[in-house]
């Protein structure tokens, strides 16, 4: 259900965000900061369209008609991503086990998501903090999982900073340099949906592999 809602919302971002920029001006930076922070820092909201928003912001920053500044975006949204993961890590460290006892949260903090993140973390170790940044849902649950696993805070911070800055820089940069390409502009809504689909593919493959393995066992 959440994926369907996300897919229906994303195509409208290209009209909604410019409208909000025109209405609120520089205050839009605060909204963008909050969105990236919430997607990475609030474990019950892993479905926010972070990749699509970053790509769109990069493409708008490349246009002289819009007031977004690419360097301000890189600094501000990079800080939001770092801070979000740090908060998520602390939530997992101090409250992780307790949250699973709250039945109302089971619709958001699904055991399947946590298990997927735990497997990802076991497979890649510390670099999972960096690699998970590029996979939706996983990027929200990985810091939470690391916190629950009592990962050393210094190690977490190093990979958190590297992952956050790389993710923001790469996706914003892709939007900045390619978002206003004639072909991309002509099919911008499809490109935005493609970003969502491509970014969800790793999680979908893992899920299919898991169900396939379970079927084989049965």
Automatic annotation (TrEMBL):
Membrane-crossing segments per the record: 26-48, 60-83, 156-178, 190-208
Recorded topology in the membrane: Multi-pass membrane protein
InterPro entries reported for this sequence: DedA-like, VTT_dom
Domain VTT: 48-176
GO cellular component, one term: plasma membrane
Superkingdom field: Bacteria
Record keywords, A-Z: Cell membrane, Membrane, Transmembrane, Transmembrane helix
Protein location: Cell membrane
Pfam families registered for this protein in UniProt: VTT_dom
Family membership: Belongs to the DedA family.
Name this protein carries in UniProt: DedA family protein
Originating organism: Secundilactobacillus silagei JCM 19001
Protein encoded by which gene: dedA_1
